[in-house]
Specification:
- It is a single chain.
- The chain is of the alpha+beta class.
- The protein has one domain.
- 29% of the residues lie in helices and 23% in strands.
- It has four helices and seven strands; from the N terminus they run βββααααββββ.
- The strands form two sheets. Strands 1-2-3-4 form a four-stranded antiparallel beta sheet. A three-stranded antiparallel beta sheet has the order 5-6-7.
- Strand 6 and strand 7 form a beta hairpin.
- Helix 2 runs antiparallel to helix 3.
């Protein structure tokens, strides 16, 4: 198997490694949104940025395909890119009425992907039966409703097998 549901699968028998990625899909996203020549950056989301609702109530999203872009990233996030879980969950909260600030944060994710296209999930052979897991929470970190943001990731063979951010 080399390609499955848009995911590329590479197997190295000598090193007992399995790589899964969506490089081709992500390149198509960058091209579709005309961001294939954008300047790359190393971090998908600025932790100092606290997005808020579109306070003025007008529909500023008519000039850009916000929902389509978030949905495209969500597909990649669900299968091969746990690094996108936090920024996509934050941006998803503003799907109904995004503003220009939300779009600028979304463009940052495009720039991040441009620089990190070659990232892959890697799974290696391991004799251990342990499944390490990590979790954290941002208690009351949402400025509008004071809800907590929580996340987790579980790994096998050094690769993430399950992750979430809510």
């Amino acid at each position: 198997m080399h390609l499955f549901l848009g995911m590329e699968v590479e197997r190295n028998h000598d090193e007992q490694l399995l790589h899964i990625n969506q490089i081709k899909y992500l390149k198509e996203i960058l091209k579709h949104f005309r961001m294939e020549d954008c300047k790359p950056i190393g971090v998908p989301f600025d932790p100092k940025v606290k997005l808020q609702r579109n306070a003025n109530g007008n529909d500023e999203s008519k000039g850009f395909p916000y929902q389509q872009a978030v949905g495209s990233f969500m597909y990649a996030m669900l299968y091969t890119r746990p690094d996108l879980a936090y920024p996509i969950s934050v941006l998803s909260k503003h799907m109904a009425n995004p503003n220009i600030e939300h779009w600028m944060v979304l463009k940052r994710i495009f720039r991040y992907l441009q620089g990190m296209l070659q990232m892959k999930l890697q799974f290696g052979a391991t004799p251990s039966k342990e499944v390490p897991g990590y979790c954290d929470a941002d208690w009351g970190g949402d400025l509008e409703d004071r809800r907590s943001i929580t996340w987790f990731v579980f790994m096998i063979g050094g690769g993430a097998i399950s992750w979430s951010n809510k």
